[in-house]
């Protein structure tokens, strides 16, 4: 009977509270793995200070029809709506992006063809410079 989305929001907030408490206890350095630190807690009531906060949060979420919970659900729905709108805009802009990509591919193909032709001309020019004088001398000798 309890709204599933509201239950997930409650669990996310409890998770965030636990993460904050563990960061206070063990530090916030990048090298600290909080999930591995949970296993090192050896006292049974190490996180008892968190219980009051969780109980307060539970009371806030107990009545699913309260204005705060409905506001939370509406905020979540607005976030989902914004995400979906962004995705639709990306889908609509996809055609333009594909057309731009197609144009760039055509330009690249044309440029590579020009490069290939220029390389062939440069190669012929190099051979004429290298062997041209010899070919002219051999041609003159054969002519005589």
Automatic annotation (TrEMBL):
Gene Ontology CC entries for this record: cytoplasm; endomembrane system
Protein transport as UniProt keyword: yes
Assigned keywords, A-Z: Coiled coil, Membrane, Protein transport, Transmembrane, Transmembrane helix, Transport
UniProt cross-references to InterPro entries, sorted A to Z: Sec22, V_SNARE_CC
Compartments reported by the entry: Endomembrane system
Domain V-SNARE coiled-coil homology: residue ranges: 69-129
TM region(s), chain numbering: 126-143
A GO term, aspect molecular function: SNAP receptor activity
Gene3D superfamilies per UniProt: 1.20.5.110, Longin domain (3.30.450.50)
Domain of life of the organism encoding this protein: Eukaryota
Membrane disposition: Single-pass type IV membrane protein
GO biological process: endoplasmic reticulum to Golgi vesicle-mediated transport; protein transport; retrograde vesicle-mediated transport, Golgi to endoplasmic reticulum
Identification of the protein by name: V-SNARE coiled-coil homology domain-containing protein
Species per Swiss-Prot/TrEMBL record: Euplotes harpa
